Amino acid sequence: MNYHNGINYNTGAIDNDVKKVVDDTIKYVGKGIILGVTLALGKPVKILNEFYRRAKEDPELSLSIITALSLEKPQGKSELEERFLKDLRERIFAGVPDFDYMKDFRKGTLPPNVQLYEFYCKPGSNLKNTHYQMNHLSNHYTHVPRCARTMKCNVGTMLVASIEIDGKRMYSAACNPDITLETHAFMMQDRANGRKNVVIAEANTNMPFMYGDAVMSPEDFDIVLHGEEFNYNLFAPPKDPVAPTDHMIGLNVSPLIKDGGTIQVGIGALGDAIAAGLIMRNQHNKEFNEIIAKSGLLEKNRELIKEWGGTGTFEQGLYGASEMFIDPFMQMYKNNILKRKVYDSAPLMKLLNSGKISENNIPEDIIETLIKMKAIHSTLDREDFNHLRYFGIIKQNLKFKDGRIFNGDTSYSVELHDENNLKAIRKILGNRLLNGQVLLAAFFIGPKSFYQTLNDMSEEERSLFGMAGVGKVNQLYGDEELRSIQRKDGRFVNAGMKATIFGSVIADQLDDGTIVSGIGGQYNFNAMAHALPDGRFILMIKSTKGSGKSLRSNIVFNYGSCTITKHSRDIIVTEYGIADIRDMPEHIVIKKMINIADSRFQKELLEQAKKAGKVEPGYQIPEEYRNNYPGKIAEILKPYQEQGYFKPFPFGTDLSDGDLILGSSLKVMKSLGENSPLKMFSGLFREFFRPVPTSAATHLERMELDKPATFKEKIYRKMIVFALRSNNKL
Q1: pLDDT tens across 105-120, in order?
Q2: How many helical (H) and strand (E) elements, i.e. helices and strands, does the chain have?
Q3: What are the distances in angstroms from CA 224 to CA 22, 39, 164?
Q4: CA of 542: how far to CAs of 17, 507, 553, in Å?
Q5: Contact at 8 Å (CB) between 596 and 573?
Q6: Reduced 3-state DSSP string for 42-63
Q7: 574 and 542 in contact (C-beta within 8 Å)?
Q8: Structural domains of the chain in order of their starting residue, each with its CATH number
Q9: Which of 410, 420, 346, 416 is nearest to 380 (CA)?
Q10: What is the pLDDT of residue 152?
């Protein structure tokens, strides 16, 4: 089917002229462009920027962008912050292009003919952005392809990886098969029904080529853009520092993970904290058990940990089933934790889970067993043969021809209801299972080292990390039996902002309706954990927010928004402990939630519960839960920090020492200004009568304040010195 200028549908025609491709697309589908773009790293920058340029130039062109998490380089909110970030951007994000529409979005200058619709954003990044708040799409991650279809998406775009396989050019959705695969299928159905649409890809050689469902053929696209200009550096956000509070939450989560089970974790400092806790459990088990005993975690949760988790090392290992493939999974893989392989065969998984077979142990009666399970026929056909060979149950060099199996010149009968034939076929059994995976994910993003590690892997090793659509990853529907047994002992760990004492959780919206981020896959993890007989949903909540006069409890009596209802409650973890509140009566839930709240707010919460008639009037918080203070966390962690555990960046960082010192100092000064303005003013005033320390020279030079030319710059120089001094960095 020709759509313009001789370019045909589903040919994967290669081009390098993005302007021409966009021009042809507009001429074909018209000036109403509904652009479906995957989230985060999978956005093709050149294509998006060209569509946006056309919309800015032509007010008659209507451009709607349906997406999420448009990645942005950090921008300062003040001149001092901008001076600090300017140097960081030039180093960390060198060669990474910007999205032009996001620049105007931030300035509030998007033209009226351009609309941005996102179902998720960086938490807190759009609290006061009217355009975002009005156009936010409140959709579960798994429902986004349906949403794109409802909104009549007519142009699909994505960033892809590309290699040759068996002499044919092949592509991979790589970092983002998440909503791409299902949206692509919808667009092909619409196309078959006569709807005009176009699918364009942008191939980037820096993108790791991923396997599993992510592999796509040229015929899946109408046009693929190739060329040096498309090989720009990938967006690689530096890691957030892991605070002691984060580490304590990660430590509290780690004994809830069962060896031989499944894990899902999210991005950010808490994800790193969980991985660090699990690595400590596996590599330094003595110290791990020592600290959870000292913290009281083990004694308070002994039965819960015994039934649902463990404190030993990971002999069987874990399998990752996570919407996000992030660096914590890579760290667990490198530290011999992420190693439990699963296979896309329900009969094999049943045998593996029961211990009857293992990756390196294919018993001689495996064929008989599979026949009894009705996994294969007693008279093997070609499909049975391919199945057995794919999983390594029989040797790889075998051929199926004329109804017989050939091993070189020797042939074997496929009539396996005959005992002699069954015995004979044992000679061609394989010695290890093949094509297992240690992880299934829907998208990935990470630091530079994460991409480099993937690119440095052999094709065989990289194929251990399967990528698939989010509908397959985040839910059980479609192949419930296989996914359920693959995800045995699933622990789906996610984060929330607040929790009520009744066990409901707030994760995406404030009580005045302001969208903070989006629900993402949180509902899916919760539903999956409740559907699996051995699954648990673990929500992490930091017990407080703010400091000084602005300190607030994140465990509250009630709240005007709810992401996970109290009817779906399961396990909630703060830095002060674990509340197992699934299937518990109301008064027990409330008591357990108050037990893990910060002690500065426990009395008020208990009084509210009593006033509401939810807790007996004479109830008192047990003594062992009344010391939930930050000082307790510091006291527990300090001896182990001195031994090298619980570092701010347990897996390294792309930031320099100067970035860390200056960045943390600016945060200290900002906190002083918010909580103790008088103290900040007096300290800054005294600074004007002190000489500038030589130890501040490097930082002042970096901020271009070593030779201040104006009175304002002289003030800024003193502010930097004051910030460093307040942070004990001088």
Answers
A1: 999 999 999 999 999 9
A2: 29, 28
A3: 12, 19, 15
A4: 49, 12, 9
A5: yes
A6: HCCHHHHHHHHHHHHHCCCCEE
A7: yes
A8: 2-230 (3.40.1080.10), 244-341+438-631 (3.40.1080.20), 346-428 (no CATH), 657-726 (no CATH)
A9: 416
A10: 96
